[in-house]
Amino acid sequence: MHRSLVSLLLALPLLLTAGTTDYVRVSLEPPAPSPFRSISYEVTRRAPATTAVHRRLLPGDAESLHGLGLLTEEEAATVDTLVRDTDAMSLPDAAPPTPLLGQLTWVVSLRVDGVAHEFRCTAPENLKDRRYFKLIDGVRRSVKAVTGELPFRNVFYEPDRRGWVNVISVPASRVVIDGFDTQLETPLYHYELASGLHTIQLTSEDGRFTRDYQVKVEPGGTTHLRVDLR
To answer: Do residues 107 and 93 touch, judged by C-beta distance below 8 A?
Structure first.
């Protein structure tokens, strides 16, 4: 069975001679099974354009679902500043040998000016050193702001037994449905589900609030969930 892998690839401006690329690569291993073999968020600079790509690949598929967009000069500069401000090349490991159940562990690999560096961190949103969370969250947000989300469509649902759910929360939250980590965050729109009752668990990005909600999805209908977790 494939383990779901979320990877973010950020290609930084070329600081070396032609043919050498500096980069930072962040990979996340979720604690829950996922139908996707890989999920990636990429920001790549090839002068004069900077592109953002969001990909999701199912096991056995040769072609991934993907969203593509161009970053403005200001957006690209924001990503560059993010890498510098977090001093990513000097961040040490911040992960226990065995993470607690449900905690996410990130592996960050970088190469700047030909020097490679790699570190691991678990549950960056809970670490005292906020640079870990700032780096990982910033790259994901930069990509999703341009490409949007790629909701999973379950091809095993019969057409007349499908429905959708929209989830909006304050604050923004990670979405788990029926124990399945969607790896998506609110606001979430037009997420496809089998008709019937479902349990939606929302956890705020800082981990302070977790709430469970039961919703009913009607065939061909859209259920709206708007909540304040505070």
So the answer is: no
| Distance (Å, whole) CA 152 – CA 228 | 25
81 in Cβ contact with 101 (< 8 Å): no
- Residue 129: phi and psi, rounded to 5, are -80, 105
Widest pairwise Cα distance in the chain: 58
Q: What is the distance between the terminal CA atoms of the chain, rounded to a whole angstrom?
A: 38
Backbone torsions φ then ψ of 21, nearest 5 degrees: -115, 130
CA–CA separation, 6 and 182 (whole Å): 12
Over residues 45-70, the pLDDT tens digits come to: 776 777 787 877 666 555 566 778 88
Q: Which residues of the chain have pLDDT under 50?
A: 1-20, 31-33
Helices (H) and strands (E) in the chain, counts: 2, 14
pLDDT of residue 52: 82
Residue 30 and residue 182: Cα distance in Å, rounded?
A: 10
The confidence score (pLDDT) of residue 37 equals 64
Cross-strand pairs, 188: 167
Considering the chain, what is the average pLDDT of its residues?
77
* DSSP assignment of 135-184: HHHHHHHHHHHHH-------TTS-GGGEEEEEEEEES-EEEEETTEEEEE
Number of residues written out for the chain: 230
pLDDT at residue 28, rounded to an integer: 65
Domains in the chain (CATH in brackets) are 6-147 (3.30.1560), 159-228 (2.60.40.10)
